[in-house]
C-alpha cells in the first residue's frame, strides 16, 4: 500500500469525525494513538462548563442524566466507539497494507523475474546470433579446408603417378646401363686391339713423317732453283696434286694448295675454284664455343668442321689483296652466297679487325657482316661495339660482332626442328632472318686477281 492510499484513508476518517461533531461548538481536545511505528492524532470536542471528574462521580446513578451529563456520556460512548472503530480500522489498514505490500513485493518480484527473463532472452538471442555467425564462418573455413585438402590430394596423386613413371624410367635406364656395360666390355677388347694396331701405325707414321720431311726439303730446293724462270702456279702443279697439302700460300686450279706448310681445305669448284677454306660447318660435330687462344691457332679437322685460325688467316691476307666468299645453306635446301671483292685482316694487337669492300651475292640486298672494321670477340676477349653488353657471351662463339650485329656463323649448331627462334644459332640476318639457325656454312678466301 502506497503513502497516498494511507493519507486518503486518514482523510476519510477525519471527515467522518468532523461530520459527527458538526454543530457542537465546544472546546476540542487532541488525542494521539500509537500503533507500531505509526502515530495518529484525533480532535475530540468538549462541553463548556463540564464538571470535573470528581464532581461528576458524585452524581447518583439512579437520577436521570442531565443534558450535559448525557452529552458527556454520549461523548464517551462515542469516543469508545471511535477508539474501537479506529483500532479495527487500523488493524484492517495494517492487514491491507501487508497484503498490498506482499502483492507489490510479488509484483516487483514478478516484474524483476520478467525483466531478468527478458534480459536472459536478449542475451540468449545475442548468443544465438553470435553462434550462428561463428557457425557460418566455421562453415566457410571448413569449405576452404576441404578445397585445399582436395587440391593436396590431387597433387599427391599426380606426384605418385610421376614417381611411378620415374621408377619405370629408372628401371629402364638401369637395364640400359647394364646393357651398355656388357657392350663396353666388348668395346674395351676392341680398343685394346686398336691400341695394338695404333702402335704399329705409329711406327709406320714415323717413317712417313721422315719421308714427308725429305719431300718438303726437296720442294724448297726446287722452289729456290726455278723461282726465277717459272711462275708459282706451274711450280706447285709440278710438286703435288693433293687438294689439302699446303706449301706456300696459293690454291691453284690444278687442285694444289700451299699455305705456310700447313694443311688446308681447298674448294676448286665454286666460282672458278682456288678458294682456301678457313671456316666450315655442316653437322655440329665440332664445338665452336672456344676462347681467344683457340680461335687464334685454329681447331677442328680440315676434312670436316674447322676454324683455320685467325693468325694463319692474317698471315695469308697479308701477302696481297684477297677476296672473301661466304656459302650458306638452310634446312629447306635453299642456298645463297655473299662475296666481297676486298678482304683484309689486321694482326692480334689490332684485335684481328676485318675490313671488307665490294659486296655482292644472293644472301640479301646488303651485307649482314659489318664492313667498316670490327674487332674479333670471344667469350674471354670482348672487342665488340656494344658498350653495355658482351655479344660473344650472349650469342656464343667467336665472331666479328658489331653491337651483336646481323650475323654469327660460329654460333650454336641446332638441328632441324630446333633451329627456329634461336638468336644464338648460326645466323645470317638478311638471308633467313635473325632467329633462324642455318644448316651449313663455309667461309673461304682467294687472291683478288685469281
- The gross shape turns out to be rod-shaped
Radius of gyration from the alpha-carbon trace, in angstroms: 67 Å
Look up the CATH topology of the domain at 245-447.
Gamma Fibrinogen, Chain A, domain 1
Determine the N-to-C terminus distance: 144 Å
Binned strand content:
15-25%
Q: Write the H/E string, N to C.
A: HEEHHHEEHEEHEEEHEEHE
CATH superfamily of the domain at 245-447: Gamma Fibrinogen, chain A, domain 1
CATH architecture of the domain at 245-447: Alpha-Beta Complex
Mean pLDDT: 78
Question: Helical residue percent?
Answer: 40-55%
Q: Which CATH C-level class of the domain at 245-447 is it?
A: Alpha Beta
Low-confidence parts lasting 5 or more residues at pLDDT below 50?
Answer: 23-28, 47-63, 226-260
Q: How many extended strands?
A: 12
Counted by DSSP, the helix tally is 8
Largest sheet report: 8 strands, antiparallel
Return the structural class. alpha+beta
Pfam families: ANG-1 (PF25443), Fibrinogen_C (PF00147)
InterPro entries: ANG-1/2/4, Fibrinogen-like_C, Fibrinogen_a/b/g_C_1, Fibrinogen_a/b/g_C_dom, Fibrinogen_C-term_domain, Fibrinogen_CS
Keywords: Angiogenesis, Coiled coil, Disulfide bond, Glycoprotein, Membrane, Signal, Transmembrane, Transmembrane helix
Protein name: Angiopoietin 4
